[in-house]
Structures are given as C-alpha cells and as structure tokens.
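chain below, 460 aa
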Amino acid sequence: MAFSKARVLVVDDDRDVLFAVKMLLKTEVQEVVTEKNPENLLSVLSRQTFDAIFLDMNFKSSLGTGNEGLYWLGRILERDKDATVIMITAHGEISTAVRALKAGATDFIVKPWHNDKFLETLKAALQQKTRKSGTTSSQPKRPTSFADDAMLGNSEPMQELFHKIEKVAPTEANVLLLGENGTGKELVAKALHQRSFRASKPFVTADLAAMSEGIFESELFGHKKGSFTDAKDDRVGRFEAASTGTLFLDEIGNISLPQQAKLLTALQNRQVIPLGSNVPVPIDIRLISATNAPLYELAAKSLFRKDLIYRINTVEITLPPLRERDDDVLLLAKHFAALYAARNHKATPEFEPATFRKLKQHSWPGNIRELQHAVERAVILAEGNVLRPQDFSFSAMELSGPAFGQAVAEHTEGPLQLQEVEKNTILRVIERHNGNITKAAKELGITRTALYRRLEKHDL
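prediction:
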C-alpha cells in the first residue's frame, strides 16, 4: 500500500514517545492515532482499522519483562491474526522483542531510535503487509479444514467433534464447551467463530477465572471515567467490544453467585450498563462459554444458577480427553515436534518406535497441553535428531503445588504411603478453607474437577 495513505496507531504510556512519533509521522502518513492506556486498545480497534500498530513492550510494570506487551500483542492478534504489529522496546530487552516476533509480531524498533530507522521499519512492515494480502478479498478467509485451526485428530471422538462444529457454527446458538483442562476449548471456540456468519467481526475472549469481584463488571461491562478510584478514562467492556461478533467466556464455572446474577441480567436484556453510567448499551453477540467444572453438580448444590446454565447452553459440546483419542497422540506428537523444531532452528526429529509406545501408554492427565510441553522439552533437550523414550519424562501424579510438596516433606521420615499423604493433604487444605472447593483447589495447584475426582477416589 502507499506509505502516505497509511493509518498508524501508537500505544505507549510515555507521553514523550507518543509526541515524538506523532511529530515524525504526521507529514509522512495519512493518520496517526496515539493511545497512552493499553486498556483502551480493544476499544480503539473496535472503532477503527489501522495499517500498522506500534506497541510498547512494558507499561505499568517496572520489571521490564515485556509480558504486558506480549499480552496485548496476543489480544490484537485474536482480533486480527494478520495485524501488522511493531513492538517498541529498550536496548536491553531485545531478547524479549524476539519472543514477540515468535508470538506473531511483524518487527520491533529499539528506543531511542534514529528517525530514518523508524521510517524504514514502518515502510518494510507495510510492504510485507501488501505482499501477504496480494489480490485476496478484503473479507477474511474462513478455514477450509480443521488443521487450519491447529485442531488435529483422526479418532472417532474428534470426527464427531468436527461434525458438531460444522453443524453448530453457522447458527446463532449459544454454545457451552465442556471438558478437562488442556483439551483445546479455546481452539474450538475460535473454530466456531471462524465458520460462522460473524467470522469477519470481532472474536473477544474473557478469562473469568482471572477476574476478581472488584474488576468483573468493569472488564465485562466497561466503566466511565471517575466511576471508581483508578478509572482515569472511559473503558469499553468485553461485551461491547465483541458486539456484532463472538464473545468467548472461559472458565465460566469459576464465577461467584453475585457475578452469575450480573452476567445473566446482561444476557437476558441484551444490554450492559457501564459502571458510573445509567445509560444501557445494546449488545449483539454470539456467546460461547467454556468450563472444566461440573456445572450440573454445582447447580444441584445451589452453587451455580440453573437459569444461567439454560441461557448459555443452547448447544453443549464436550471435548474428549486425549486418553480417549487413540492414535491422535502420535499425530499430535509429530505435529508439535515439527513446530518446535522449526521454532528452535532444528531439523524435524524422527521418533523411535519405542517412543511412540511410551507416549501411547501415558494417560495424559494434562491432555494436549501436557503433550505439547512434553514434546517441546524433548525437542530442546534431545541429543540427536531422533526422539527416544528417555527424552520424555512424566510426573507420576497430576497433583502438584505447594500444599502437596509441603505434605511430602513433612512425611519423608515415616513409612506413610503416598496415597495417605495425598488424602491427608486434601483434608487439611479443605478444612483450612472451611469446605470451599475453589480455594482448596487453587492452593493445591489443581482444577476443581481434579479435586472432585480425588475426593471420590479417597471416598471423602
């Protein structure tokens, strides 16, 4: 595209940086928009499209980890996987910028920069964008196969899953995704969106497990400037940002009863009221929710609202655990081996037959996520270009975390059996939290579903 016609967004919490970039670019490109608060990023992107986005690697954090920049990079790419994002980083953070490139950034610029270098970086990024788009339609291409979504599987359970996705995706039905941790619920949510009539509209995610009572309404419904102490600017919530598109509520089983009531009201009324406002904002979303929690058991104990379940699960899809997917383990292992070999500049490794047997015999309590991490470690640590059984090591138990580790340390001197250690640890932690399963599971470092399984196993 013509450099002079470009629209550029710059996101940095340093006003001097924003001013310098605006002065540099205002005579070079058609429009420069600056934003100091990354929390407003999705709101800005929902109102306008940009040919390039400059994004700082660090905002509030003084640690210089770059995690904030990587987080917002991920949010941008969720909305538009082809977005041109150039990271802004300090000289000592170049290794972090390289991580950003691997995560999907187009390029990075080191501050303080020379203006000529800055302009060259932007021009190169825009030229790359033009080459990638070529003569394709302005409408995003829908995936033609599930491999396009990184969803692989030849097993019968996966073929049934693919069939359900194809049937449900083109509808407006709300979908509830159930399944263990690591089974790929977010991938299924994206596949449903990409095969829907809303595919060209926003796909917005919200991890409800990460939202405390204090920020729940602000995150989902938005807020007005001055509505609470830290509300220095207006903010668009996830519901409004996803309007005309799809909203994915992950870990919906983790929210409290008061949060459930607020969520139900928004879904029933098809509108939200931002904090600090009395004016309802209409919303038009397709809702996809996900959880690994036993919702129906929680509802029977009055811990989850039945009317909310009815609202979110017009269609219910349960994802199969990896242990029920036959030879998909080998298919996925080969896929991840090729992926991480390329990422680490290595040749794609082969697998010894004995390695395949070992992988198939493992129960994979962590599902695809566990397999993915196991293969990545093996690719990095293997001595040669053949992955052998000894390159893979698995934990004997899914249970981990500080409470369990402490319990083992306390009983190393006696003959107490490991099963008893586990049972006693669970009892102590649950008692400490007065029977609150969510808090107990969090301290133990496992999911609530995993904790329920252990309660049944130990007849507690």
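The longest helix spans residues 115-133. The mean pLDDT is 83.
thats it, cya
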